[in-house]
Amino acid sequence: MLPRPLCEIACSLNENVDRLAFSCIWTMNMDGTMLSEGGDGHVWYGRTVIRSCARLDYSTAQNIIEEKVAPPSSYGDHGDMDEDLWPLSRRPTGGHSVTDVASDVRVMHKIAQARRKLRFQNGAFALHGIKLAFRLGPAGQPEVCSPYPIRDSNRLVEEYMLLANYLVAQRLLTHAGGIALIRRHAEPSDEGLEEVAAASEAEGLDIDVTNSTTLQESLSRLEAECNDPMILQTITALLTTPMKNAEYIAAGCVPEEEWRHFALNIPYYTHFTSPIRRYADVQVHRILLATIEGKVSKYYLSENDIHAAAKHCNERNMSSKKAQERADRVFLAIYLKKRPMMSEIATVTSMGKESFTVLVLSTGVTQKVNIPRDHPLVKFQHFAGERRIHLVPLAGHACDWTSMNIVMFAKIVVSCHCTEAGPIDVLVKIVGPYCGD
Fold first, then answer.
1. Is 29 inside any structural domain?
2. Do 262 and 378 belong together in one domain?
3. Are residues 166 and 289 in the same domain?
4. The RNB domain covers which part of the protein (predicted)?
5. Which end of the chain is less crowded, N or C, counting CB atoms within 10 A of the terminal residue's CB?
6. Residue 5 domain-assigned?
């Protein structure tokens, strides 16, 4: 990420100011298809000067989509609109009207919905786990913790970004050849997927893990048929484990059959839309410019140079991801230090001889519970053939339950705390069996 003065002021597409940009422009039908789909002659790529008329955020766009503000039946300048729903600082400038902006957002949303439907019909696959968001107090400590909402406004932006990235990848491969910087997503581990499928089958849930299309079809069917959202959330979380990380490559250094993006189920993809926060996008812009100016043969980096840069991007990206995940755990632990969660529903996601792993459904946190270490006053017996651990409180240990069976997908009640000694982390303890609502 560029420093804040650059990414929020100098390089951001702020309202009513001219900004130099790189654009990928195409025409779409209302059904989500592209006009004259096929090839790249119908797409325009080039340098542009952009002057945005309004700087919307996801919340404001969502309010527009839901017609909480500027509904289609209303007219006028909407000066009496609730500023909480559409802040004055985010309203149109330069002679553009609230009505026009709201209408455009709703049209784009309708097209994005159709595009998203087409993508999944064509085999795209998506797993959405819980992502926690924190609001910090004056001292920089987390004071509010809640799941980050994924709304239609997020999906609207996602659809156009995905399509732009795909079209730019197409341009790079057809005009830049081996120096094209693309992003591939390899197929997941077959063994891992089969383990999830077997565990689900034991619960009477059928998941076809043959490919991304059958996986998405299985999840869509389960969403419609399964009346237990907790089990569905657990299966979704389990499916993330065998998934591999997407990575950048130079097209010429990898066989064509390995360019494919598994999750999107498309033959190629790249990152073009976020040059403020990703170096790979900057390099993609440079290669794209070379294709436009006819200077690919004189490009200053070779295939091997670009592949080495891609490898470095992958390493930095993985380090950043791990740091973010660890930071989220630390922030949650600090939050729990003052506000422990005493009764949360969790599901069992893996089994050992004297331990098991749970998914805390409200937070998306996965945590291993070591019975002898975390619960010394509980007697346990492991039944290997049944993949079951039987728990009984020791005599004299005051407890609200008399026995408990830990098996895959079992629902239990846990408490979440901050560890008392370093390193700081989330500590999950058994409270008792889950007895329903």
1. yes
2. no
3. yes
4. 1-294
5. C
6. no
Domain final residue pick, 282, 302, 329? 329
The total number of structural domains in the chain stands at 3
Helix/strand/coil (H/E/C) assignment for every residue in the chain: CCCHHHHHHHCCCCECCEEEEEEEECCECCCCCECCCCCCCCCEEEEEEEEECCCCCHHHHHHHHCCCCCCCCCCCCCCCCCCCCCCHHHCCCCCCCHHHHHHHHHHHHHHHHHHHHHHHHCCCCCCCCCCEEEEECCCCCEEEEEECCCCHHHHHHHHHHHHHHHHHHHHHHHHCHHHCEEEEECCCCHHHHHHHHHHHHHCCCCCCCCCHHHHHHHHHHHHHHCCCHHHHHHHHHHHHCCCCCCEEEEHHHCCHHHCCECCCCECCCCCCCCCCCCHHHHHHHHHHHHHHHCCHHHCCCCHHHHHHHHHHHHHHHHHHHHHHHHHHHHHHHHHHHHCCEEEEEEEEEEECCCEEEEEECCCCEEEEEEHHHHCCCEEEEEEHHHCEEEEEECCCCCCCCCCEEECCCCEEEEEEEECCCCCCCEEEEEEEECCCC
- For residue 32, tell me if it sits in a domain: yes
pLDDT tens profile 312-371: 999 999 999 999 999 999 999 999 999 999 999 999 999 999 999 999 999 999 999 999
pLDDT, position 410: 95
Asked if residue 65 is part of any domain, the answer here is yes
Tell me what the mean pLDDT of segment 280-293 comes to.
97
Residue 262 belongs to what domain range?
A: 153-186+244-329
Q: What is the pTM of this model?
A: 0.92
